[in-house]
Amino acid sequence: MIEITYFGHSSFLVKIKDQSVLFDPFISPNPEASSIDVDALRADYVLLSHGHEDHVADAEKITKNSNALLISNFEVASWFANKGVEKYHPMNHGGSKALDFGKIKYVNAVHSSTLPDGSAGGHPGGFVVSHEGGCFYYAGDTALTYDMKLIGEEFKVDFAFLPIGDNFTMGIADAIKAANFVGTDKIIGMHYDTFPYIQIDLEATKKSAAEAGKELILLNIGESITL
């Protein structure tokens, strides 16, 4: 069993055993997440899918406050190292890394990746996280891609964090296909409703998922669930 807490947009804190793994922290610039005290957040690991500000905005502060290990692609990890983040680990596509709570694999994503100051952020990615109790997929920002089928062939995915906001990423129709590709019926939605470009019809989205036989989990900011 793992505990998942949602901090808005694409940011989740996942507790696996006694370890806390934070994904893509974009909290303080998000007015919808004003109830979250970023200064009080602690994590053992901070995983960044790519360099866009709406995925890395609070990474430096939280990493330094927590003495956490920051993990991302080479360009993003190096950028944070130059900002004084002392604990970092660079990865690239297809690579795996064993950690205290299990193992992560950095997998392909189809998107763009520019850091907040305009620096090149390398190629974006997602993470497949394997742990003693199971496996999940954090897609990051991505289009639907056949590479997701390789995830389904290699791993038994219990659930997937998938973007559903359309316009910049997959919408719900492609997210359903992505869930099929990786072999799960459980989707945790992300990257929707934060900005006007990614506003969605929630009821229509829920209906589409239900008709496809998928469990779509849409969390409120600050809400936690156990899976």
Keywords:
22% helix, alpha/beta, Metallo-beta-lactamase, Chain A, 6 helices, seven-stranded mixed β-sheet, 227 residues, globular
Structure in words:
Helix content is 22%, strand content 29%. Helix 4 runs parallel beside helix 5. It is globular. The chain has a single domain, classed as Ribonuclease Z/Hydroxyacylglutathione hydrolase-like (Metallo-beta-lactamase, Chain A, 4-Layer Sandwich), CATH 3.60.15. The chain has 227 residues and is of the alpha/beta class. Strand 11 (159-163), helix 5 (172-182) and strand 12 (186-190) form a beta-alpha-beta unit. The strands form two sheets. Strands 6-5-4-3-2-1-14 form a seven-stranded mixed β-sheet, with helices on one face. A seven-stranded mixed β-sheet has the order 7-8-9-10-11-12-13. The longest helix is centred in the C-terminal third of the chain and has 11 residues, at 172-182. It has helices at 53-56, 59-66, 74-82, 147-154, 172-182, 202-211; strands at residues 3-6, 12-16, 19-23, 45-47, 69-73, 88-91, 96-99, 102-108, 125-131, 134-138, 159-163, 186-190, 215-217, 224-226. InterPro entries: Metallo-B-lactamas, RibonucZ/Hydroxyglut_hydro, UPF0173, UPF0173_UPF0282_UlaG_hydrolase. Pfam families: Lactamase_B_3. This is UPF0173 metal-dependent hydrolase SAMN05421761_10780.
List the helices and strands and how they pair.
Layout: E1 3-6, E2 12-16, E3 19-23, E4 45-47, H1 53-56, H2 59-66, E5 69-73, H3 74-82, E6 88-91, E7 96-99, E8 102-108, E9 125-131, E10 134-138, H4 147-154, E11 159-163, H5 172-182, E12 186-190, H6 202-211, E13 215-217, E14 224-226
Parallel strand pairs: 3-4, 4-5, 5-6, 10-11, 11-12, 12-13
Antiparallel strand pairs: 1-2, 1-14, 2-3, 7-8, 8-9, 9-10
